[in-house]
Amino acid sequence: VRLYIIETSDVVTTVTSNFPTPNTTNLTYQDGYWFVLKSTGDFYNCDVDAPATWDPTKVLTAQGFSGTAYAIVKQNSMLLVFLEESIQAFYDNANASGSPMSHYESAIQNVGSKFTNTIVSDEGLVTFVGSSRTGNFSVYTLEGITNVKDIADDNVRLLLAAEGSTVSSSIGQNVRLGGKKFYILSLSTLGRTLVYDYGLQ
Question: β-strands 28-30, 12-15: how paired?
């Protein structure tokens, strides 16, 4: 994964100086900082308002549960790190050294996701395909940082089980239409598209 800066003058710069070369594809902005994530759970930030300047000491690690990290997502004023079986929350603590972020330890969730392209954030609500420690796939919403809700029914769970490991190539997105908001999940192998109406639940 590489980071490029495209200026209004059309000059394209590849950021190389101390850039941590993450192996996930997330690039997330929060409070003047850009954040990138490694599968180890380490996430790095650039200097404030300086996306070309990265200090290798400005790093924090998601460590509440072990496992591979797959995504970093903004939710309101928080950053959420998705591991396979947990979600960990971080807030801007304006730390004088290292990362400006700090753990929000009471917000750790026992469900996570390794399906990065299914994770959709819309202000205070995050929707995703995830799995718990039982290993079963389902569709979840996370409102705020503590309210995880399983929104799938048995039919949807059967489809996700039939999709199996190729859920990783499925794509989720939020769509607003006619004053309503929907989560749309496209399952690539089965060729099915699932639609969730947030209003009707």
Answer: unpaired
> HEC profile for the chain?
CCEEEECCCCCEEEECCCCCCCCCCCCEEECCEEEEECCCCEEEEEECCEEEEEEEEEEEECCCCCCCEEEEEEECCEEEEEECCCEEEEEECCCCCCCCEEECHHHCECCECCCHHHCEEECCEEEEEEECCCCCEEEEEEECCCEEEECCCHHHHHHHHHHHHHHHHCEEEEEEECCEEEEEEEECCCCEEEEEECCCC
Compute how many other C-beta atoms are within 10 angstroms of the C-beta atom of residue 143.
14
At 121-155, the pLDDT tens digits run 987 899 999 987 777 899 999 998 778 999 999 99
In angstroms, the Cα distances linking 61 to 27, 68, 91, 113, 139 are 16, 12, 13, 17, 26
> Whose structure tokens read 């797959």?
70
d(CA 18, CA 54): 6
Dihedral sign from CA coordinates of 120, 125, 129, 133: positive
Q: Are 123 and 162 in contact (CB under 8 A)?
A: no
Distance CA 19, CA 114 (A): 24
- pTM (global) more than 0.85: yes
pLDDT digits 0-9 by tens, 66-80? 789 999 999 988 999
